[in-house]
Write a structure and sequence with these properties.
Elements (H helix, E strand, L loop, with lengths): L1 H39 L8 E6 L2 E6 L4 E5 L7 E10 L4 H9 L1 H13 L3 H6 L2 H15 L8 E9 L2 H8 L1
Antiparallel strand pairs: 1-2, 2-4, 3-4, 4-5
Helix pairs in contact: 3-5
């Protein structure tokens, strides 16, 4: 019986020692990863921003809104496909955070704005007036800064062929 106790205590001793070594190694890896992430790695990738060069220095293009498909106000709705982006200065951290927090609001503004027009009205409207109206609406909800210019990467209005056929007649 004495032999079994000795054997069991040796096994437990090595098991505990192995677990303590694993815990110490895990803690060291965690600390090293934290130090690397906070102090060494300068610019973590972010899917909402794209770095660009501008005449007045470095800037970023905010692309977090993404491409949207919006139904028009027609009885048989058409579709507007739109991709909105804008530039801003990344040195303003508070404004950058506000932009990231307002993505849902920006999308809602776009859906409400384009959803209130028919296909015909959208085809007649000037792109510059559309951009100005969206810019005004975006800036009305921002508190920590203002967007200077909007860019429409994709802007397509697709409607029913009947509507287009009646217009041409």
């Amino acid at each position: 019986m004495e032999v079994k106790r000795d054997r069991r205590s040796r096994i437990l001793f090595f098991l505990y020692r192995g677990l303590i070594i694993c815990i110490v190694i895990s803690a060291l890896l965690f600390i090293a990863g934290t130090i690397y992430g906070v102090f060494i790695r300068a610019n973590p990738p972010n899917s909402f921003y794209e770095t660009i060069s501008q005449k007045d220095g470095e800037g970023q293009t905010f692309i977090g809104i993404g491409q949207l498909r919006v139904s028009t106000a027609d009885p048989q709705p058409g579709t507007v496909i739109i991709f909105v982006s804008f530039t801003y200065h990344p040195s303003d951290k508070a404004f950058s955070e506000e932009l990231a927090l307002r993505i849902r609001d920006f999308r809602q503004i776009i859906v409400e704005y384009f959803g209130s027009y028919s296909v015909l009205e959208l085809q007649i409207l000037d792109e510059d007036s559309l951009k100005k109206e969206l810019l005004d609406r975006f800036n009305s909800i921002l508190r920590l800064g203002q967007i200077e210019a909007l860019f429409l990467g994709d802007f397509m209005v697709m409607g029913q062929n009947d509507v287009l056929g009646n217009i041409q007649e």
